[in-house]
Amino acid sequence: MLWLSIAFVSILLRLVPWTFARDVALLPRATSSDPEPISVSPSQYWEGNDGPWSSFTLQVGTPVQDVRVLVSTSSQVSWIVLEGIGCRANDEVCANARGGLFDMNASSTWESNGFWQLGNERNLGIFANGLFGNDTLGLGIPGSGGPTLGNQIMAMIGTEDFYLGMFAINPKRTNYTGITEQGQASYMTTLKEQNLIPSVSFGYTAGAQYRTSAQDQANGC
Fold first, then answer.
1. C-beta of residue 218 within 8 angstroms of C-beta of residue 29
2. Distant-in-sequence, close-in-space partners of 140: CB < 8 Å, separation ≥ 6
3. How far is the C-alpha of 27 from the C-alpha of 81, rounded, in Å?
4. Stated pTM of the model
5. What pLDDT, in 10s, does the model give residues 57-101?
6. Which distant-in-sequence residues (6+ apart) come within 8 Å of 153 by Cβ?
7. DSSP state, 30?
8. What one-character DSSP code corresponds to residue 135?
9. Which terminal residue of the chain has fewer beta carbons within 10 Å of its beta carbon, N or C?
10. How far are the Cα atoms of 1, 158, 173 from residue 6, in angstroms, in the given order?
11. Is the peptide bond before 198 cis (omega within 30 degrees of 0)?
């Protein structure tokens, strides 16, 4: 379970047969070894070319490179804007506007799996590609104690159809070769399989920059 302020919420309902009141007895409160939900704070930046939206920090590669991304509930693969194709060389304004760039050549743990379609927004006529691969992926601002997982699938992007990268919270698996293959676990599924969260459910608040504006405060919002 992951809270990203995103929050991953788990609710367990126990269904029992209906019985007469005379047969009802109180049971001892159940104990659980389930892990606590993970709560992740936003990056404190407001960004995006159609926003601004509240972004979140990812720590990618070895050594760590920090990037800021939005959240995708539809994708199971996180997207990172790639250095060299995401912006012109030495364009720091562009790099910062796109949440920071990832230099895959500087990561000793990056493994490439080639170019594939990103898949999102095809119903809107967007057929963008990404360089898929695996690397270490940590969640949250450095030092915040967020989870870090090795060998996570991600896609490097340069297209401006998606201006910022995405942190994927869909638990689906990614299958490269065919529907009979089990596929690689998503970040969410890996957290659950490693017993770091109690479920793959989640909650997410995108935030609104105007929420704490001077006018809102004057209006008592």
1. no
2. 40, 41, 56, 57, 59, 146
3. 53
4. 0.79
5. 999 999 999 999 999 998 999 999 999 888 988 999 999 999 999
6. 77, 78, 113, 132, 133, 134, 174, 184, 186
7. P
8. E
9. C
10. 10, 26, 21
11. no
